[in-house]
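ugh ok fine here u go
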Amino acid sequence: MKTLEKISDFFGKYMALIVLVVAALALFVPRTCLWIQTTWVNYLLMIVMFGMGLTLKLEDFKLVFTRPKDILIGCLAQFTVMPLLAFALGKVFGLDAALLAGVVLVGTCPGGTSSNVITYLSKGDVALSVGMTSVNTILAPILTPAITYLLLRTTVTVDPVSMFLSIIKVVIIPIVLGFVINKLFGKVTQKLVKVLPSVSVIAICLIVAAVVSHNAEKIMTTGIVVFAVVILHNLLGYACGFGLGKLLHMNPSKTKAISIEIGMQNSGLATSLAGTAFPDLAMATVPGAIFSVWHNISGAILANIYNRWTDEKEAK
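structure:
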């Protein structure tokens, strides 16, 4: 078990680098990853979500009642800032219908477990981060399809009902199952939680490899535009979250949590939904895959920056 924990620690520590290497391999030598089928994406995401459920406790939801204002601010920002940024950037850069749909899906998805990890590394308010992620994920079956439909209804055909059912199946059921198992078999799951980072990283790598390798030629022909949109979307999300925290006079730890939660999305869910909601738009899965790679890199860098901010405050 100790060996597995060491391996898991390694995966957690070098997640950004590992995902980047896998993405580069899938993009430049796609034949090495073509054995990973895109039909696996939903099942791989279910594994990640089940792992998230295993880490949740009732205490994580008590925060909703003890600090409702903070949670409400995070939820409102999550489902307004990122969707509107996505739509605006897609229009400004003139993305075609498929890529626009993919970018908007990334924006309308809730934050993922990566935001909780990066908040912890940034010495931010982890309880607030977990609370926002949990509540946003629960709201996602309603808000993600609804907002996507409102933004894209004049561009592509959106089926909000199928998106709702997909989120229930791929996200909510695995999380609830993990939560229940954790509640019933807490002692066992506490040991399993220590090796979850490696499982999650492997699943994320397989999702990225599948999507990138099967769309490598199209990604290369798309050029730098889609990369620029994804990077700007993520960075502007961080900046808006930081600005919101400052505007509302939040302390540094809360500001960090808000900033990271808004900027980091559950891009795996966006990739999964793109395949389900837009089966005729193959490129719609690409922005989510690129975001999966980039936000882990930017998150690691941001954690170092926010750590220095904390240190300077403490020094003063």
